[in-house]
Structures are given as structure tokens and as C-alpha cells.
Amino acid sequence: MPGTSGGPATPRGAEADHGGGESPADPGGLVIETRALTKRYGKHLAVDRLDLGVPEGSVFGFLGPNGSGKTTTIRMLMGLIEPTSGTARVLGRPMPRAARTVLPQVGALIEGPALYGFLSGRDNLLRYDSADPAADPRTRRRRAEAALDRVGLTAAAGKKAKAYSLGMKQRLGLAAALLQPRRLLVLDEPTNGLDPQGMREIRTLVRELAAEGTTVFLSSHLLDEIEQVCTHAAVMTRGRLITQGPVADLAAGARGRLVVTTPDPGEAARVLKERGVADLVVTEERVTGEPPGKDAAGRDTDLADLNAALVAAEVRVRGFGLERASLEDAFVALTGEGFDVAG
Length: 343
Description:
Layout: E1 30-41, E2 44-50, E3 53-55, E4 59-63, H1 70-77, E5 85-90, E6 93-95, H2 99-102, E7 106-109, H3 121-130, H4 140-150, H5 166-177, E8 184-188, H6 196-211, E9 215-220, H7 223-229, E10 232-237, E11 240-246, H8 247-252, E12 258-261, H9 265-274, E13 278-283, E14 286-290, H10 303-312, E15 319-322, H11 327-335
Parallel strand pairs: 4-9, 4-10, 7-8, 8-9
Antiparallel strand pairs: 1-2, 1-3, 1-5, 5-6, 10-11, 12-14, 12-15, 13-14
């Protein structure tokens, strides 16, 4: 499956789908849907009863630390490996049984592109396209040039792929996935190896593709990447789904950090700590921390009481409030784990 899963990249054992009552994904429905999807390797449980729903037209972030089961899930969705149990449907059809019907409508970049190092970037794309029986040979070169331009590789199109940097190889793999119009684009860590400018360009490209009607399923271990580009997200850890939904809703479910601006930061930190505020960070005129969820009596903490306690201790409060919660705050609240914020 070199860079794209369209055309002849049919998983071993897949059978042609002849209808059988299966209908394509309805507009506004789910383009990816799993039920209790599970994968075991011996005693190791890589994916544990995953129930996932990816809305059509979304940019869906599949978020989790390295080793959390993201790539294994993607390989099952694309029909590259069989699940141990459970079901997966892509574009309304069962996978891997309907792979020959589904995969020509899907572009994919999984675990990095497999390139012909002795060929130029341009010739790699021409080779991939020629292997696709649905591709029109009359427009092959034009489509290859358009894909190269879209990922910023026009200037390096004639260079042999073995001389490409990791980031350039990622771009070329993405170009291969874009040779044909796709209903669904599946990208596994697409910004791997890219510098900050390259990451921004890929985010812009993903937004453009979504605006054109392509559903983008994007896996990443970078919270910042997901928060900047995705409309929806799911969080995986240790093979299990923790939560999923619109990104704004996930962040809204976490309480933001308490921020106090004061010329008396040391005394403010002491008072807040006594009142149960955790993870305190003290700077010159600013104190931040995690507000307690409950007081000693089990009641929800009233932030006004915290402010009153500061004033009673003669702390000069210049500013007091909660910062908007981020996706990082939501992840930590859900899992109790830290996470990579950026590359």
C-alpha cells in the first residue's frame, strides 16, 4: 500500500463486494463506524472493543500517545489486517470484505510512504497512478503535477526519492493519496518529520480538502495539531477509546486553570494551596493552578470563595478568573496522563 490505498492495493483475502444489501454512507452520516472492534496479538490486546463514529465532512483527529492502538485501528479500517472480533464499516460497507469497492474512494498515508528510491518524486507518482485501473492515462501527468504542486514539491519533483528528507517523503506520500478525488482521506501522523512551516502547510491543505467535501481522518500524538485543524476528535490510550466528539465539546468538558494576577504571588500561592488548588505555578505577578472540584464538605468549589480567601489574607488581587480549557486540559482530566503538545 505505497502511499495510497486506491486502485489495486487490495488487501489479501478481500472479496469483491456485489452489493449484498450494503448501502454507501448516507450524506451527513458516518463514513467510518466501528462496533466493539478488537485486535489481539497473542496475549497483547492492541485495540479493545472500539466504538468509533466519524461524521461525513469532518476533519477527525484520532489522538493518542505512540503505542495507543491508532495505527493498528487504521490498518483494520483499511483492510490490511483482520480484526480479532467486532466490525468496521467504511463508506457504509463492511471491511475488509468490501475492500475492492471501498479503497478506490479512499486515499491513505499509513506508517510513512513506501517509495521507489531510484525514481524521481514525479516518476513515483506516475508509477502509482499507472497501477490504478480507474486512472485515466490521458490526464496522468497533469494530475501528478497538480498533486506535487499541492504539497509543495514541484521544485524537487525531478530529484530521486532516495535523496528526499523525511518531511519530503511525507509530502510525496500525501501527493500520492491526492492523485484522484477521494471521499475519504486517511492520514497516519502526516506531519511526521516536517518543520514548523511544513506542518502549517499540511494543516492548510487539510482544511482546503475538507472545504472541498473530503472527510479527513487524521491520527496524531500531538494535541496542538489536533486542536488547530480538527472539527472532531477521539482519544485513545492503551488500546481503549476514552472519549470522542466535537473538539470544542471535548475542551469544554474540562475545567480551565485558575489565574490570579497579584503583586503578592507567594502569599497568594500559600492561600490557594490551603484551599485545595493543585499544580500551582508561580511567576513574578501571576499564579495559576488547577481549581479543586469539591471542598472539604463535598460541595462544588465556589471560585468567589477562593477570591474572598485571598482578599481576607490581604493579598492584592489585580485579576482573578479561569482560562479557557484546552484539549490538553481535557486529555489530562480524562486520563491523568501528560501528553505531547507539539513536535
